[in-house]
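hiii, so i know i said id send this last week but things got crazy w the move. better late than never?? heres the sequnce for the chain we talked about at the cafe, plus the structure i predicted for it. fair warning i was half asleep when i ran it
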Amino acid sequence: MNRSALLALCIFASACTLTQRRDTEKVIAQSLISDDQEFQLGLQVHEQLKKDNTKFLENPTVELYVESLARKMIAEANKERKLDWKWFVIDDPATVNAFATPGGRIYVYTGLLLAAENEAEVIGVLGHEIGHVVGRHSARQLVASNGLQVVVDMALGKNGGEVAKLAAGLAGKGAQLAYGRDMELEADQYGARYASGAGYDPRGLATFFEKLKAKYGDTGPVMTFFSTHPANSDRITKVTELIAAENLQGTELGVTSLKAAQAALGKK
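okay and structure toks below
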């Protein structure tokens, strides 16, 4: 895309509806940062996470379990954006969190698996993170925050300092990818749709928010997912409204299989 066309898109994006702006921003992000550059950026972040001694789980049973859940939604996600998706489990039972990096890398903390009451809730959160990638939220947010050249240099491994800060933010509270309200709501919509498409109760994401909020409040000590992805009554309502408006179906809860994974993590 030439500079004139890109400028025209930027001008258009500033004066259109939320849906039109979202779609236009995705086109702009795709033009600025290629899928290969996003993949390389995700790889750089992963290598930095290892350098930072992030404790990745070494439990094949749980790792394969998380991968099996993600794969139930990837076929649908690939219809919009086909990527070389990868999944990782971080061994930290005190952290209720999940995050995605550019290029299709999804990270889930064991604390999230232990906090969920059923598989539909886990599927909803995974779908939410996949939605961030499909919506190119990382590229859009990083370019807006750091500038195009900085992000390209990060992808090429030329700016280790910025990659280190990004990795630290993601592994902490996601501060380096603080998505705006519109992106969070869009990711919630993806989560509900993907869960429904996989046959699961699409209300899982909303019930997960509700249970965590009821148990810990908005800013409890183990509420990393809650605090980095602000869950409030409006957000829960939006998911519920989407399910009704699009008549999203799905009844599977997956209690037994989640309990088996939790047992493999030592939960009694």
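btw The first helix runs from residue 3 to 13. thought thatd interest u
miss u guys!!
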